[in-house]
Amino acid sequence: MELIGRNFEMEKIERYIRHEHHCLIYGIKGIGKTRLLKEIRKKYFHRTLLIQTPITPRELLSDISNFLRIEHKRSRREQMEKILSELRKRREKLIFLIDDFDEITTETRKILNKILSIVILIATSEKDVRLNFREKIELVPLKWHESKQMAMRLLGNETRAQVINLIATKSEGIPGVIFQLCKDYKIASELGELKSRRDLHMLMNEQKPCVWKRINIIPLPALVFLSYLFLVGRYLLYGIGRFEDAFLIAIFGYATMAVARLLWIERNIDE
């Protein structure tokens, strides 16, 4: 099935590839990130390497070596030097396609950092990440007419307009949800379970609502720290009557700093 509602994004990605810019495609699950990667691979098949995650550094080097058709060296350092040498010889830069980039480990990212200057990286992620991505594209839900068009392509033009409109509404423009609703409708129709309009609505209501954009009003580490400041302020205003109260403030403060530190480390790893 042809790509629906993503022509603008595809044109931007093709322009980034021409200018040799790294690009991150991010958005919620089911928004169509993997589908875009498949379209890119189809168009640039001769120079694209699709990397499946999770992947270890050794597996990454092995996949690159197999694509370049070079022999495997015993040590990782020798293998890396051979790969860098071969990549520099190419007339056109190799395009790395990485789905679910947020699952890449820190060690694997270090390998990627060494070759980013001589390849083009197109990656997908459910959240915004930082790794020398000059360009970023956030995928948003399809428009109403695009959702209807996709449902009609999946179910056929002979499908009742009521069904198409209901799927477009319940899916909230998320391509993955549209695909699942159409699949559920086909199965229920074949089994004869849709005998009335009520049955159709019950089938569609089984799909959980999807929040396509998360808004973080305040970071979690800051929230933990503010709660500690609130506790300290409370005791400064009303006083500390017992030793146990002062001990509680000290313990809570230490725990707050420890939790904030762990959250900060985890954030840096993700980035």
Structural write-up:
Helix 10 (220-238) packs antiparallel against helix 11 (243-270). Helix 5 (106-115) links the parallel strand 3 and strand 4. The chain has three domains: 7-138, P-loop containing nucleotide triphosphate hydrolases (Rossmann fold); 144-205; 220-270. The chain has helices at residues 7-18, 33-43, 57-68, 76-89, 106-115, 144-155, 161-171, 175-190, 197-205, 220-238, 243-270, and strands at residues 23-26, 48-51, 94-98, 119-125, 135-138. Strands 2-3-4-1-5 form a five-stranded parallel sheet, with helices on both faces. The chain is flat. It contains eleven helices and five strands. By secondary structure, the protein is of the alpha/beta class.
Strands ordered across the widest β-sheet: 2-3-4-1-5
Q: How many domain modules?
A: 3
- How many individual β-strands? 5
Helix content: 55-70%
Can you tell me the residue ranges where pLDDT is under 50 for at least 5 consecutive residues? 211-216, 265-271
Write the CATH homologous superfamily of the largest domain: P-loop containing nucleotide triphosphate hydrolases
Question: Order of SSEs, N→C?
Answer: HEHEHHEHEEHHHHHH
Structural class call reads alpha/beta
CATH architecture of the largest domain: 3-Layer(aba) Sandwich
Number of helices, where a helix is a run of at least 4 consecutive DSSP H or I residues: 11
User: What is the CA-atom radius of gyration, in angstroms?
Assistant: 25 Å
- Would you tell me which CATH topology of the largest domain applies? Rossmann fold
The percent range for strand residues is 5-15%
Largest sheet: 5 strands, parallel
Overall 3D form: flat
Q: Cα distance, first to last residue?
A: 34 Å
